[in-house]
Write a structure and sequence with these properties.
The chain is α/β, with parallel strands linked by helices. Helix content is about 45%, strand content about 10%.
Length: about 260
Amino acid sequence: MWGEIVLLFKNYIGNGFAACLFAAAVFYLLFTEKDKTKRIILLYTSIATLALFFCPLFAAGIFQFLDGETYYRILWLVPMTMVVAYAGIRLTAGFSGKWTKTAAAMAVCTAIVFTGDYVYDNPYFSPAENRFHVPQTVALVCDAIIVEGREVRAVFPDEMLPYVRQYTGNIRMPYGREIQVERWEYGNGLYEAMNEEILDCKKLTTSAAEQECHYIIVHETKPGQEDFEKNGYHYVETVAGYCIYLQDGAYLGLGSGEEEAED
């Protein structure tokens, strides 16, 4: 159990520089911060949380219900950013004189910068394309199928799954990002049909209809789309490189919300 706890902690702290900076901030505040409330919020709660995290008995109890994928999130309760920022401000304020304060502030900022990594080196992060922080293609496709005043149900390709519900609550999906995590062993025939190299339109549309999906969204380069029209879904338009197919009789008009057919 102890080895697993340590491994989770090592994976969480990455290169360890930010954790060292946090430890230094805690050590500094322990000797300089006199305000009782701030000590409780910033120091005692941090120390208590870390103590619980590293306690094998506590971990054994939690692991009866959760796995390591969830257990490490206890570390999210440690206010690392707040502690480091406050300690930096306290340190800077402790100097007298304009230039010494400026030098101290620059030193603190430099330490913070060099303990981190450039976020866009991570393939899972990219510069925001809109205020929702989702790919613009997702926003455009969602805008095309939203019907004002009610929910619609749509099946999306893999690359869009993490973002749809982040963008709007008016679109429901038969599965979300969790389907992509193999160790969770979620099975879904519709997901499997969507991810075949060549689409089997009959299989895909049958499964989509069974799961009450009004729309099927497929990238325009995906082969095998020729038979949608024969299997209960018709082509409406292509938006940002994605073909939108609508279930026959589900809605009249795309995204207008002005007319509805009985479904």
